[in-house]
């Protein structure tokens, strides 16, 4: 018997660049037994028509309202900028559609809570794109911890580079909004948020924390225009706290890229051993990570190769591969009534940690 194929309409698709074109379209096409892309809506009909033509999509919708009300759309994928998530996701839910929304779910905790409550009230599936949670390296790391590779976790530390927020942006039109703390697409909300989602899946919830948020660069250069633009988003994020199992946690994200391409370091220290996770920079949702471990009296760390079973059947490229893994879980959830994909409720949990980080940093700044 042929399983149902879910029909997807994408809001916010720019061919040649942008996350939807880079990750969502190839992910959905890799899952052609479960999904088909029926069309796109952008800021204008002309923009949607260009995207549809460039990517070979059947339909260009004139606007979001037309897409979410279309009977041939089962799922609305939302890949627009964060300040527009609330209005687009609300429109989709109110039209009775399931939603895959990129992370962050909302511009702040209140918006995320509103969307999660709305999806629950309508009995619709809301999935959020915290892709690091389903990456093969994080999934295998979680299994290693569960199997007792390090024994009881004593502490954990992350030091990482945020990639962006390092004093320059590539394009003013597409990237400048990330410099504005109020827009909700900052180093704290994006790479730190993705990594927090993965960390809590592996080691448990953050139950107590203190923090410092600092903006050490007041401007950033737009490379394409040569302009200096104001920057209010933090380029330094420091968090220390306690996990639910009692282990201390320390996180420091710095804006920009590492000089040597080694911009992510995560160590988990335990009673029986240690694991180190490394990568080029701190966007754990789409970078390749490597794992090393040592146990007992071992003096050197040895590679911990992720078993092939964690990668088989998925796109090799990490960006569409991790997005495809979430879509795979979403299809299973829709068919079986399960809840295996990162949900809006899961997103609210991460938003709550971020809100706690912001509140704690405000307390520090006032003292």
Automatic annotation (TrEMBL):
Recorded superkingdom: Bacteria
Keyword Oxidoreductase attributed: yes
Domain Gfo/Idh/MocA-like oxidoreductase N-terminal: 6-126
Keywords: Oxidoreductase
Record-linked Gene3D superfamilies: Dihydrodipicolinate Reductase, domain 2, NAD(P)-binding Rossmann-like Domain
Gene Ontology terms, MF aspect: nucleotide binding; oxidoreductase activity
Matches recorded under InterPro entries: Gal80p-like_C, Gfo/Idh/MocA-like_OxRdtase_N, Gfo/Idh/MocA_oxidrdct_glycsds, NAD(P)-bd_dom_sf
Domain Gal80p-like C-terminal, residue spans: 136-279
Keyword hit for Acetylation: no
Name of the protein in question: Putative dehydrogenase
Source organism: Edaphobacter modestus
